[in-house]
């Protein structure tokens, strides 16, 4: 993987990994015709995909950005930017940058939005449309985190919303965990417990020993420690309020939802709403597949994730 950067229109340097060099060594090479965009989740980075990048990039061009305020990307605290819409604008600028850097017209993009990455893609489509998109993969994220009452897009209760951050009180408590230094380390570890299926809902036969579990915890907590936790807390307040249900009805390209059966974040019923809404909007090419792991299913079941993603990309870019 090659590490690269570009600067947004609000002067914020953003970092990303690309499996192919920019600019191309050979102009207009077919290898750049299709691009898989891997978008990580809240408090993560492109490093989340350490178990996916080698396989995916062996046959496809893969780009994995560090979202604003995450990983090696900056966040311009003096200008805000802690909004899902700003992250969607960043994605738009990245796509334009990739087009300019390659000189390849009509690149076919397949974004893979994991957790808040899914919210970024829904917002992107709502703001900028579907030009250049060939399909969407949404990984373990419901289209609304907060609970909602009947009449506001339809009733959205405890069986559909986020398990731990679903209203003003729970959001404020979550922010406290991120910004208070004495609680921060516990917040990092709590995130691991709810996002790894074998930690959230252990089952006989998981086969993960204490040493491996410790390495996993340090891997993910280390990535979270690299973020500005106060900035993340402000992003969280924006993210949890976004209601993407109607936006999902505007998805006209193929949709694949990947859901973790042992996710500590969302229920299968909540995540299936993306498929139902896409179908309501007339999209018959929308489906959900269920993994035996948790929120970070791409990490726990990388072989299946890689296989199903590549099959989806092949199908929607023929």
Give your account of this protein's structure:
With 318 residues, this protein is of the alpha/beta class. It has a single domain (2-316), classed as 3-Layer(aba) Sandwich (Rossmann fold). It is built from 13 helices and eight strands. It has helices spanning 53-56, 84-102, 116-128, 168-179, 181-195, 197-200, 210-225, 229-239, 245-248, 268-271, 273-280, 297-300, 302-316, and strands at 2-7, 13-18, 34-39, 61-65, 108-114, 136-139, 255-260, 286-291. The chain has an eight-stranded mixed β-sheet, sandwiched between helices. Helix 4 (168-179) packs across helix 5 (181-195) and helix 4 (168-179) runs antiparallel to helix 8 (229-239). The chain is globular, with a radius of gyration of 18 Å. The mean pLDDT is 94. GO terms for molecular function: hydrolase activity. InterPro entries: AB_hydrolase_1, AB_hydrolase_fold, AB_hydrolase_sf.
